[in-house]
Amino acid sequence: MAVVETETRGQIFIVRMNRPERLNALSGEMRQLLAEAWVEFRESRDLEVAIFTATGRGFCAGEDMKESLSDGAPGGRRAEIEDPFMTGALEKPVICAINGYAMGGGFMLVERTDLRVAVREAVFEVSEAKRWLLGGYNHGHIAALPYPIAMEMALGYRFTAERFHQIGFLNRLVEADELMPAAIEMAEHLLTLPPASRVNTVQMMRAMRPAVAPELDGLAKALHGHGAKSDLMESRAAFAEKRKPDFKGWDDPDDRFTPPTLDSLAG
Question: What are the two backbone dihedrals, phi and then psi, of residue 97, each rounded to the nearest 5 degrees?
Fold first, then answer.
């Protein structure tokens, strides 16, 4: 069976990740098929609303660590075509139906959707702090969350669906057998709106989302490289081998005390 399945219900397009034995980890094949599905949705004159979901007990575990280790490079293989869902070029609304774990890159897929319904058992984690040299500094900011919660997200703590619902990251919490009916109900509501109103409102709401200032993105780029690069693969190897990682930290121990700053980059 395909690792990405699609289905149409009238004007509703359903995209379903289907690699349950790996908690729908993002292999190169899956990224390619997702990109193709989102291109199909964007280019269709008949499809207006998408539902993004998955099979099994995980929505998406993020990067396929085994594939990264096999390739000897962190981050995973990218699609060979532009994915309009990932680049922000997709003008149509996407509803996320979260059936389980949404970790790392899986969390980032959820984050890119416009409306979200999740099963009560779902668990979320921003994993950059565990896999890179800088934690997910931007996620809480984009979600307009208070500083301590944004810090908690950035440092790789896990969140239950209940807590995410309480802080406004999720629209609905449902039982497992209600997940797709709830998502379809949300999609059907969108289809009752005047088409121009739906399209224009989504565009306006997306334009109003908070964004990290360019100078801070520059600092983040510098901090992403501040540390021992060997720790990137060590974190993935330890995860795959189910052991405690042996991190080096910095190639030069003195680097710990001289991180890039806004002032140093401006100078």
Answer: -110, 100
Instruction: Please tell me the total count of domains within the chain.
Output: 2
Give yes or no for a contact between 57 and 96, defined as CB atoms under 8 angstroms apart. no
Long-range own/partner contacts, residues 189-194 (CB < 8 A, 24 or more apart): 190/48, 190/49, 190/93, 191/10, 191/11, 191/12, 191/48, 191/49
99 and 13 fall within a common domain: yes
User: Does the pTM of the predicted model rise above 0.90?
Assistant: yes
Contact 170, 178 (CB under 8 A): no
Where does a domain end: 207, 229, 247?
207
Conformational region of residue 64, where left means phi above 0, alpha means psi within -120 to 50, and beta covers everything else: beta
The residue whose two tokens read 């983040």 is 220
Between strands 49-54 and 4-9, the pairing is unpaired
DSSP string, 124-181: EE--HHHHSSS--TTHHHHTT--HHHHHHHHTT-EEEHHHHHHTTS-SEEE-GGGHHH
The residues with which 246 forms a beta bridge, in sequence order, are none
Yes or no: say if 74 and 232 are a contact pair by the CB < 8 Å rule. yes
- CATH number for the domain including 103? 3.90.226.10
**R_g of the chain, CA atoms, integer Å:** 19
Q: Are 50 and 41 in contact (CB under 8 A)?
A: yes
- Residues 104-153 have pLDDT tens digits of 999 999 999 999 999 999 999 999 999 999 999 999 999 999 999 999 99
